[in-house]
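Appendix C: a fully annotated inverse folding record. The material below is reproduced so that readers can follow the format used throughout the book. The structure is listed first as tokens, followed by the designed sequence.
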């Protein structure tokens, strides 16, 4: 089991049962790679830039400003936050410390996180002082607009709703991309009465850590995104998602 086989099996089996091609949403980093890029373009995959793929080490060290009284403000030593970071960008911590969105950049040596660090490793690093990485804010407006047009034209878009691949036996938190794509399409073509069906597809490998494992692809009941939902999206996108 791996992210490439997941996509390949879902694409092949869906074509077998429906006669239609699936265009997978794929990390742009994979799309740009020498060999995967060939298969990605051949299969009609749609690349999407992910901030975690753009994380780069920056100078200086960072630590909490006033923990535990303030779990969001981070102070830097030898840092250049005003030029190296931006609101809605990403801060990455080493040693599995996690990744956190940035809410505000106050100065070259101070920024505010969008939410508290959730990992013990990350909290410990920021209490002691640590190196770090930063990634810019990603604007996927053009990507979503492209997907809206593809769905309106009758295409099947495949997407990993958890935002990536993992080998845990349970779902992790779902990302909002699936809802944005479906609701956004219906909202954009509201006057035409367009509806979008979200069809869940689950993969179960008999022996996921062995080569050439058998696998079962199972489809769930379609979730139909209706005109009424599209109207709600136009009124309050965040609540509708």
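Designed amino acids, in order:
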């Amino acid at each position: 089991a791996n992210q490439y086989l997941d996509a390949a099996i879902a694409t092949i089996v869906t074509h077998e049962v429906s006669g239609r091609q699936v265009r997978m949403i794929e990390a742009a980093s994979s799309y740009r790679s020498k060999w995967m890029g060939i298969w990605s373009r051949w299969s009609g995959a749609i690349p999407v830039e992910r901030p975690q793929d753009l994380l780069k080490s920056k100078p200086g060290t960072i630590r909490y400003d006033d923990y535990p009284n303030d779990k969001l403000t981070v102070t830097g030593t030898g840092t250049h936050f005003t030029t190296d970071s931006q609101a809605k960008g990403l801060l990455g911590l080493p040693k599995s410390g996690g990744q956190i969105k940035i809410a505000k950049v106050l100065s070259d040596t101070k920024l505010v996180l969008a939410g508290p660090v959730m990992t013990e490793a990350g909290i410990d690093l920021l209490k002691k002082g640590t190196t770090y990485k930063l990634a810019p804010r990603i604007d996927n407006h053009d990507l979503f607009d492209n997907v809206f047009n593809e769905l309106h034209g009758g295409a099947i878009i495949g997407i990993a709703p958890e935002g990536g691949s993992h080998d845990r036996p349970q779902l992790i938190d779902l990302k909002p991309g699936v809802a944005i794509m479906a609701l956004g399409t219906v909202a954009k073509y509201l006057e035409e009465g367009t509806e979008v069906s979200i069809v869940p597809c689950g993969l179960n490998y008999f022996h996921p850590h062995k080569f050439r494992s058998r696998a079962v692809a199972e489809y769930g009941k379609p979730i139909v995104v209706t005109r009424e939902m599209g109207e709600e999206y136009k009124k309050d996108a965040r609540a509708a998602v």
